[in-house]
Specification:
254 residues, alpha/beta, Arginase, Chain A, 3-stranded parallel β-sheet, 7 strands, 16% strand, Ureohydrolase_dom_sf, metal ion binding, Ureohydrolase, hydrolase, agmatinase activity
């Protein structure tokens, strides 16, 4: 049983606020030396939003919200009855350098940082940021493993398959899945979307998604069948894909 009262332990409010007090890698070389299983990457980007900005502060807020002490080897998961950081090596790889004046340069910084993590053999865990960061992060995964060989499980209220945003903008928070499909990074049949609800997308866009071979589960189905039943079905259908990308989007209420 791990010692919870060791003299070298620090409470969560001390030290650098890395993700669950994980060790920090300042370079790709350090990340490789640490033999990380998971590399946590901040993507402080919110220039892809239509309404309220502020999501660029998300990675910092997530790190500061963690209550695990340091070292974090006693961070316990009650449901699985194990210590996750004793099973996998989690390393905080810092933030992608995202200039607040350019969405394109910010996306390239996220793509590059994600690719660096993949090249060390780690699984990138990207903290956003607005929904548009899925485009560079998933593109890096597809570039690493091969276009067309990656599947996407997308948890969101919206499909994010818009043809363009306001004013004809092609890269925004409502269109990353469409851009991934159009680029060939992730083909339509490799998409599974879970939790769609609300007023958008509308019928024409659902028709387009169906033509591309995309699949989705509405929130009403989850309420009726249960989340675990829906997720098990998605797992069975996605088992033929050798690699996967999971995108989870959060929404604020107006």
């Amino acid at each position: 049983m791990p010692d919870l009262r060791g003299p070298d332990r620090q409470p969560a409010f001390l030290g650098i606020p890395t993700y669950i007090h994980s060790p920090l890698a300042l370079s790709q070389e350090e990340l490789a030396e640490m033999q990380a299983d998971v590399a946590v990457i901040g993507a402080p980007v919110d220039m892809g939003v239509v309404n309220r900005p502020g999501a660029r502060f998300g990675p910092r807020a997530i790190r500061q919200a963690g209550y695990a002490g340091s070292p974090n080897d006693t961070f316990y998961h009650m449901e699985y009855e194990l210590y996750p950081t004793q099973e996998i090596r989690v390393v905080d790889f810092g933030d992608a350098v995202c200039p607040p004046s350019s969405l394109e340069l910010s996306h390239e910084a996220v793509r590059l940082k994600t690719m660096q993590a993949l090249q060390t053999g780690a699984i990138p865990l990207v903290l956003g940021g607005d929904h548009s960061i899925t485009l560079p992060a998933a593109t890096a995964v597809a570039q690493h493993h091969g276009y067309g060989r990656v599947g996407m499980i997308h948890f969101d209220a919206h499909a994010d398959t818009g043809e363009s945003g306001y004013g004809g903008v092609l890269i925004a928070h409502g269109s990353p899945m469409r851009r991934l499909l159009e680029s060939g990074a992730i083909p339509g049949p490799n998409f599974i979307q879970i939790g769609l609800r609300g007023y958008w997308p509308d019928r024409p866009l659902f028709d387009w998604m169906r033509e591309q071979g995309m699949r989705w589960h509405l929130m009403a189905e989850i309420v009726e069948r249960g989340f675990e039943a829906v997720l098990r079905g998605c797992h069975r259908r996605g088992a033929r894909r050798p690699r996967g990308h999971i995108s989870v989007s959060g929404h604020r209420c107006s």
